[in-house]
Amino acid sequence: MRNILIIGAGRSSSSLIKYLLEKSSQENLHITIGDVSLESAQSKINNHKNATAIQLDVFNAEQRANAIQEADIVISMLPASFHIEVAKDCITYGKHMVTASYISNEMKALDEEAKAKGLVFMNEIGLDPGIDHMSAMQIIDRIKDQGGKMLLFESFCGGLVAPESDTNLWNYKFTWNPRNVVLAGQGGASMFIQEGTYKYIPYHKLFRRTEFMTINGSGKFEAYANRDSLKYRSIYGLEDIKTMYRGTIRKVGFSRAWNVFVQLGMTDDTYTIEDSENMSYRDFTNLFLAYSPSDSVELKFRSYLKIDQDDLMWDKFLELDIFNPNKKVGLKNATPAQILQKILMDSWTLEKDDKDMIVMHHIFGYQYKEENHQIESSMVIKGDDQTYTAMAKTVGLPVAMATVRILNGEITTPGVQLPINKEVYEPILKELEDYGITFVEKEVPYLGYNPESVKG
Prior knowledge:
Helix content is 34%, strand content 23%. It is an alpha/beta fold. The strands form three sheets. A seven-stranded parallel β-sheet has the order 3-2-1-4-5-6-15, sandwiched between helices. Strands 10-11-12-7-13-14-16 form a seven-stranded mixed β-sheet, with helices on one face. Strand 2, helix 2 and strand 3 form a beta-alpha-beta unit. Helix 7 packs across helix 16 and helix 15 crosses helix 16. The chain is globular, with a radius of gyration of 23 Å. 41% of the residues are buried.
């Protein structure tokens, strides 16, 4: 049997493992799942005859090397920074590799060695990055093949809570790593191009410069800009495009309220707070407000941030219990961002019966025979339950499908890559439709970036 090694048995691996187990007899596969927690790995395979669970510490070089040598292909579902040691072993022992993570500089540096050994190192084949690349390239290639010239490309994606599970005033719950949500947008200005003009949004302004969109009967949404949209011009072969913008989707009103945390400094992860362990939520909030011998923390908060008492945004902060003097932070030497994450997890953690929802939305503007056209393409996916979430499905299924195709010799181009070639995206997008992961595409009037056609 052909052996697939999966390293990492976290939440996002559930649909990936289920798919491979269901295909294992037909495709002659044995699935080995390695995780630092043997119990976690065992829970994912449920005593399946074509699967083995092993305890695997990715930082144990001997353990890692032994497991990789036994495999025909390796899937790393580890945090992105941990992939590189796995990748180096895959080069050493001549194994293909698949990840859902962005291609790091260290991974990119392995490209020549991977090519020399005929190895496929497929990265960015999850949701975002992943399905976004494939669904975008399918339409971009189609427009180009028909003789069209791309003028505009915008792409938005968000992991949200399904409407039936939307039970808080923020219309948001954590559907993936909470730390990434708290730190989103940090590390430099967001960069993009609109109507030929370069635009930059510094972090402290990011959540007040949002785009709005209505998507396929699923309601109105907003989006804030991702860090670097400009690099996708060369990746997608759109070097001359006038507008290129990628953003993160939230329900309307989220960004305005989140901006309060940014302005206060609560999302800062660069320093630790004295005696944070014994601090109350109220103490933490008061850290960022001026001293007053008479005013309450609530009054200082509203006054500093100019929030009226009857503003719905005020109720959002009350709901998070950030003024509670009895709840303790309980984290030693914590950064503001770590404490904020702890507070938010009290309110934003998915309940047992909650379902998540993925929303993706692309806009393509192009010129064909002297006329301008616009296409909108949208995907809305709900999770089944807390195991087979929409996030697990949309991340794990493309990874699994690419893995089987590499094993079967259907994806053969060697080297470190992402799924922008037809040999990769056409069959995977087609198979994803069998699992309900589909896009609704429609022609709309061409508006360019600015509906009023005002150059700016």
